[in-house]
Amino acid sequence: MPDTRPLDGKALLVTGAGGGIGRAIAIEAAKAGAMVVVNDLGATLDGHRTSSAAAEATVSEIEAAGGRAVTNGDDVSRPEGAQAMVRAATDAFGRLDAVVNNAGILRDCFFHKMTSEDFDAVIKVHLYGAFNVSRAAADVMRQQNSGSLIHMTSTSGLVGNLAQANYSAAKLGVTALSKSIALDLARWNIRSNCIAPFAWSRMTSSIKVDSPEQEARVNRMKEMLPEKIAPLTLYLASDIGCETTGQIFAVRNNEIFLMSQSRPTRSVHHSPGWDFNSIANYAIPALRESYHALDISADVFAWDPI
């Protein structure tokens, strides 16, 4: 008989849960029995604070369905904000079993036009945010001798994308952070994994439509609902997922991918040692066959979502 409440008694913190993927995860987690801290500071897409109305709406929906949830409006980019949201979980529920690092902003532009402020703001929310919240949660989870940290990454970082140097750098950094957390905290039964979600949300709604091909791509993305990201997230948060750690997944509608991690693909050896000419004449010609193309996420995931 299927388990309809695999998170019964668990306390989850979901950042950026006022809308989109975070909201869907928070609502589905509550249906699965979890008590949820719904964090959202009510920021615009580029990170400017507005109101907490979105987080409150998510909490109201959870409570209307008979679940338990509390609102938190702290900023993931600030260590004290992360500590406050973790305290919100322990104060309300007495524990913290899983964190979903989902909060994010975008400030897209081509690299030669990107300002230091635009780069810094995106890194602060995505990479610093994942560190800050995970670091604050780790102290509680170590005392419990258990926990799950789930970080939203992106194929913009894993593969590449145009006009997203800040976002791509942050999201690839999140995968390295997750692997380090998985290694360092394994002794306390704390696991750490990443999900690269494909879903139509506030983040993807900013994609520019300037060609028929781009319009077709956006229309395909609109078919990928945020709710599709929730099942894998809940699995990774559950006790049943306790043996999965240090992995990178992607979810694209009804497809789940286990993504590769950097490993050597080809090598060359030269007994006398390498100099400029031997590299030019032997090493690079031998290695060139395994070069990666200058592709973007849409080139790699080129088929229609199933």
UniProtKB/TrEMBL annotation:
<dbReference type="InterPro" id="IPR020904">
    <property type="entry name" value="Sc_DH/Rdtase_CS"/>
</dbReference>
<dbReference type="InterPro" id="IPR036291">
    <property type="entry name" value="NAD(P)-bd_dom_sf"/>
</dbReference>
<dbReference type="InterPro" id="IPR002347">
    <property type="entry name" value="SDR_fam"/>
</dbReference>
<dbReference type="InterPro" id="IPR051687">
    <property type="entry name" value="Peroxisomal_Beta-Oxidation"/>
</dbReference>
<feature type="domain" description="Ketoreductase">
    <location>
        <begin position="10"/>
        <end position="206"/>
    </location>
</feature>
<comment type="similarity">
    <text>Belongs to the short-chain dehydrogenases/reductases (SDR) family.</text>
</comment>
<dbReference type="InterPro" id="IPR057326">
    <property type="entry name" value="KR_dom"/>
</dbReference>
<dbReference type="Pfam" id="PF00106">
    <property type="entry name" value="adh_short"/>
</dbReference>
<protein>
    <submittedName>
        <fullName>SDR family oxidoreductase</fullName>
    </submittedName>
</protein>
